[in-house]
Design brief:
Elements: H1 18-53, H2 57-89, H3 93-100
């Protein structure tokens, strides 16, 4: 009589809870926002260096407009994503109030 070999499959993983999924999404958004903010810092720093080397007033004005737009977007990301997520994650309202100012 032939021997039948059975194969055991790994147990199906349990789906993550709603809270776990929500926290994972929040963590991913926060990590993305932090990366974006750091990239913004580098970008604006490079704009300021570029500005110092310009002599033409029109080029300076164009770059100043670009800097203002980049800083506006940066502030919006901080206010809408970073600070609210940080407030939920840490218990230091004084620090965050100061940072927002």
């Amino acid at each position: 009589m032939a021997t039948v070999q059975t194969t055991k499959f790994p147990a199906k993983p349990k789906p993550a809870s709603k809270t776990a999924r929500k926290n994972a999404r929040a963590d991913a958004k926060t990590a993305d926002a932090i990366k974006l903010l750091k990239d913004d810092h580098k970008e604006v720093k490079s704009y300021f260096k570029q500005y110092e080397s310009l002599e033409d007033d029109t080029e300076k004005q164009d770059l100043a407009n670009k800097i203002c737009l980049a800083l506006t977007v940066h502030a919006q990301i901080e206010e809408e994503i970073y600070y609210p997520a940080t407030r939920e994650a840490i218990d230091d309202d004084d620090l965050l109030d100061e940072a927002e100012v």
